[in-house]
Amino acid sequence: MAFVFDDFQNLVQKPAAVKFDLSVKNSAAAIRSVETKNGIAWTRMPSATKEGAAQFVASVPGGTPVRRVVQQVASDACDLHMKAQKTEKAIVVETDPIKDCSGNAVPDGTIVTFTEVTDKGRSTVDARIKRGTAKAELPLAASGTISVASGVVTGNELHIGGGQ
Which of 38, 57, 88, 110 has CA atoms 20 to 30 A from the CA of 148? Predict the structure, then answer.
């Protein structure tokens, strides 16, 4: 959103073209031109395909461009996958490196939920991504199903124990 002012800090009421430019290093820029209404212009732009510091510039012809730097992070996880290993006291589950659909690493601290369903009930562990993966310990069970999810994205399901 941009507010257009004159040299005396008055909101400019007549329409003016505002150019919005969003760019991330080594990525194509997204550019939009919008005409102001009552001194205000706004736009909505998609996130860049790369993570990192993004420069957002708003400018009007003959005016001083205003620059803001925002940190872009990866989108939701894509192709979420986990593996499990039984130990003497628990089932240890761990994801493969978690990335979005553009291949950017999902930020550390993002919550990943592991769920184990057995004939004795349901166990759920929320784990944070650390160094690209999430890891948790679930109760030891003879049989059941373990699933993984992050936000609205679900990953693979593992079946433990014998039977069908």
Answer: 88
- Per residue in 101-120, pLDDT (tens digit) is 878 888 899 999 999 999 99
The better pLDDT of the pair 24, 142 is held by 142
Q: Which is higher by pLDDT, 39 or 54?
A: 39
Q: Give the full edge-to-edge strand order of the sheet including 135-139.
A: 82-86, 90-95, 135-139
Could you tell me the two tokens for 53? 């510091």
Burial class for 77, CB neighbours closer than 10 Å (0-12, 13-18, 19+): buried
The C-alpha atoms of residue 110 and residue 152 are separated, in whole angstroms, by 13
144 vs 119: CA distance, rounded Å: 7
Per-residue burial over 97-136, b = 16 or more CB atoms within 10 Å of its CB, e = otherwise: ebbbeeebbbeeebebbbbbebeeeebebebebeeebbbb
Residue 164: its pLDDT value, please? 47
- CA atoms of 107 and 71, how far apart (whole Å): 12
